[in-house]
Design a protein that fits this description.
homodimer, 200 residues, alpha/beta, Helicase, Ruva Protein, domain 3, Dna Topoisomerase Vi A Subunit, Chain: A, domain 2, 2 domains, four-stranded parallel β-sheet, two-stranded antiparallel sheet, 44% helix, globular
Chain lengths: 200, 200
């Protein structure tokens, strides 16, 4: 005997979510079975609402719940500086720093030939179109500091530099609060390479 | 900036599920945002279906999707042997062994005075009623081999024995495929205490 068809269907659907194994799926299904109906239905309705109303911003491809995303709608943002990220979640990470007042452009991925992601699968054409349209003077390449992200940044830098726009990349180095002893050699190497004059 | 209201609501609801932290909730929300609408809606509908149609079997308190649960509906099950478990998930575990052909009774918990679970919070009154109604001759106490489960089994054994029914308990001992070296002393003690004659 397994569970009944309906409960098993819920366990199967939960098990398809990333990071949810069969045991977790079972545990969550029984949790949903046990909670007040309104609590479970709030989750169900939140899924429907997100699928119906959340779209990608047609300008920067961030998530949006109307026409443009919150950043593009904000008139105080500086249109001349563009931060290029791989994923909308990266925007939240950058926003949390409160160090950036420009706009974003979400590539929706990074170059990854093995998985069939080439320049045409990313929002690169749209990025180029924005340079002129919005009078962009600086592009900050905020792709992830891994193989795919670095390759994507390199590709974009080669494409953007001849267009006369300033192209910058996030600094690599030791994380704040980190420990020199546990830093990997690549990070430590980058930190040495990017060393800065001490103001004293 | 955080996410938009709808996406944040979904992340919040996912974060309320057991074993899902804020990062996992975010990851799952973005996964749901990315998949085909029908895939996300299948999950949403599975939640609604389970909340609307899955109930507890009025006889044994297993999960049921109609009147009685699948086990109670099966005429081939032996009504004279009753396996008492804490949770419907335990039934699936016992069923997988294919060693038990009787019926179940789900207590819906175990005695836990600290959390306010006393005998009245468990389905003990209903268990006693079934003994006569169904002509039960043996009750197998399949509560968990932990403090609460053992206390519950002890409580039930003392209550059931005077009623002239055979009361048994799952054997404690080393798990099959386990390693003597890594067994805790309680388990190894129980295994010694419950040692059996070797048939040779």
């Amino acid at each position: 005997m397994a569970y009944g068809a309906l409960l098993q269907a819920l366990i199967d659907e939960l098990g398809r979510l990333p990071g949810i194994g069969p045991k977790s799926a079972q545990r969550i299904a029984f949790h949903l079975l046990k909670v007040a109906p309104e609590d479970a239905l709030r989750l169900s309705e939140a899924i429907v609402a997100v699928k119906e109303k959340v779209t990608l911003c047609p300008r920067c491809f961030n998530v949006a719940e109307g026409t443009l995303c919150d950043v593009c709608l904000d008139p105080r943002r500086d249109a001349t500086v563009l931060c290029v990220v791989e994923d909308p979640r990266d925007i939240v990470a950058v926003e949390k720093t409160q160090e950036f007042r420009g706009r974003y452009h979400v590539l929706q991925g990074a170059l990854n030939p093995i998985e069939g992601v080439g320049p045409d699968q990313l929002r690169i054409r749209e990025l180029l179109a924005r340079l002129d349209d919005e009078g962009v003077t600086e592009v900050i390449l905020c792709t992830n500091p891994n193989l795919e992200g670095e390759a994507t940044a390199m590709y974009l830098a080669r494409m953007l530099k001849p267009l006369g726009v300033r192209v910058t990349r996030l600094a690599s180095g030791l994380p704040v609060g980190g420990d020199l002893e546990y830093a990997d050699e690549l990070t430590l190497g980058r930190a040495l390479e990017g060393r800065r004059e001490v103001d004293a």
